[in-house]
Fold these 2 entries.
Entry 1:
Amino acid sequence: MKVCIVVLFCLSLTGCAQFIADKITAPKDNQFSGNIDALISKTEFCDDLGYCIKGQQLKEVSSSSSSYQFKLNEQVWHFKSTKEDTPISHDPSSLILVFPGFNQPTEIVALHQQWIKHITGAEVIVFQSADMSVPFKFGLDFVSPVISLIEQKQPSQVHLIGFSMGALAAQAVSAQTSSIYTIETRLHLIAPMTDFHDSTLALWDIIHKDKLYSTFISDETVEEAVQLIYTNSNLSADDTDLVTKTKHSRIPTFVYASTNDRVTSAKDWRQVDSSHIKLHNYDKLNHIETVALTHTELLKDFVSNLINKEVSPTNTKVLGTICDINDRQCMTGLQAQ
């Protein structure tokens, strides 16, 4: 039945492209299972004109220790802490703002939210992903509410962390903080989306190419859908040109990317010659593995830049432990923790 519907849409090229555009930008169902209500509280952040976006803050946890882990592909990340553990960098006057990637469940990001809070002592807030906005605006509609939040908090330092498409919002906010505030701002872009057109075609190829309905949909139709998304959002490719915007900014920026990421390639950043942009390049990580931070070297670089202090890759009290599920010795050690 679904195939018939797609075919009927595709009898008109424009209709098919619009159908695909709507599918790409529509809010997705959250597939996360598990209860993390004890960790986070959902809230809204609004600007002076009443435009609001959703987000989540951490609750005060009364237990003396916490332990959490998640598994992705062949990797398991485990982190355990107690209230007696001292943050490696205690700075409660800092504010860390996290912008998830497209359709990246904020519940999963909450695990990293709790971890970042523990190791830094800073307040950590996670915002909704860009696909939750109607109409879809690539997350650029987040800027005004986030700037209002920063004005209210008046932190001494702001770290903006953008995953994948979330990098667009993070960079756009950084541009505002640099021109309005004297506070120190740092930008962390993890597997950042540099070209919406290329990322969309790559995802289409990865997710949909082997589906029956893709037989009736040409690459040209997908490209038209990309242009329709820009048209419907009243934005252009220039508005989402992350590399150019970051290059012209003077904000200290750390880019974490993989040469093996087909969705957001590291190659666009290799050509950038800028003293304020530092590229951390990793081999053999796909897009999901990069945004999930399931790589010890990536974690080490990220935390070192976050606290402005070099962290050893063997420091499991800070980084946690990442095990290959086939590494019996490592997995046995996790079970003993």
Note: Residues 38-194+237-336 form a domain with the Rossmann fold fold (CATH 3.40.50.1820).
Entry 2:
Amino acid sequence: MLKEEFEQRWVRKSLRETISAVDERRGKLEGSMENVKEALDGVEDRIDNWKEQSKDYVKMSLDSTMDKIGRPDRLDQKLVGVSVQRVALHLLDRELVRIN
């Protein structure tokens, strides 16, 4: 009987130590997971920031390009101006031909 009690106590002690070690590791793992979550939040914030910066850059680039080539309404005005000039040149040419 004494041997059985000793074995049972030894098994209980061993189980308590194992449970304690598992609990300690679980605590460390939970702490590590919190650190990972915080790091992930930081990365997500940076990604959102980069997306916003990219949108701003693309918009700025498109605006700059549109300013260089002219906005559609300005293009229409330029086309009308060119058409008026062509008509005026054509009429002037006809007048010069008639005079000569």
Note: The longest helix spans residues 2-69.
